[in-house]
Amino acid sequence: QVQLVESGGGLVQAGGSLSLSCAASGRTFSSYAMAWFRQTPGKEREFVGAVTRRGINTYYADSVEGRLTISRDNAKNTVYLQMNSLKPEDTAIYYCAGSLRYGGRRPGEYDYWGQGTQVTVSS
Predict the structure, then answer these.
(1) 1-25 b/e (C-beta count within 10 Å ≥ 16 → b)
(2) DSSP per residue over 16-63, as a string?
(3) Phi, psi at 109, each rounded to 5°
(4) Nearest in space to 91 (alpha carbons), one of 4, 5, 18
(5) How far is CA 23 from CA 11, 40, 41, 113, in A?
(6) Closest-CA residue to 37 (of 109, 119, 85, 105)
(7) What is the dihedral of CA 26, 81, 45, 89, to 10 degrees?
(8) 123 residues of the chain, pLDDT tens digit each
(9) Which of 5, 3, 119 is nearest to 67 (CA)?
(10) Bridge-partner residues for 101, per DSSP?
(11) Which of 12, 23, 58, 90 is the most buried (most CB within 10 A)?
């Protein structure tokens, strides 16, 4: 029902900033809670943050609290991840995901996924 496409990844030095975007096709974007996950080879997909349908509430993994900010603009069918004070351990492929149900912290709770965008933080 929706297609998600991430963009904005790249290489940045530790302490720097990066902004990711996830553009959604379809007419039902506002029906989905949205989240960002990240994954490195050989590891499980890790929850980063989520935002509720109208963007009123957000919540984050402890490891990124205060450094990464998730937001959405339903008029533009886009969800964002502003990444500040980046650390080498933030290096991963970042995925956006949507859920018609409650937007929790587990990958299995999400129905739609983007293709991912690579973020590399150098030391």
Answers:
(1) ebebebebbeebeeeeebebbbbbe
(2) --EEEEEEEESS-GGGSEEEEEEE-TTS--EEEEEE-TTS--EEE-TT
(3) -85, 0
(4) 18
(5) 21, 22, 25, 11
(6) 105
(7) 160
(8) 789 999 999 999 999 999 999 999 977 899 999 999 999 999 999 999 999 999 999 999 999 989 999 999 999 999 999 999 999 999 999 999 999 987 899 999 999 999 999 999 999
(9) 119
(10) none
(11) 90
Tokens of 63: 């490891």
Beta sheet of 3-7, edge-to-edge order: 3-7, 18-25, 78-83, 68-73
Structure tokens at 95: 């995925």
Name the nearest CA neighbour of 31 among 73, 69, 74: 74
60's tokens:
């984050």
In residues, how long is the chain? 123
84 secondary structure, DSSP code: -
Joined together, the tokens standing for residue 88 give 């080498």
> Which of 21, 11, 33 is closest to 90 using CA atoms?
11
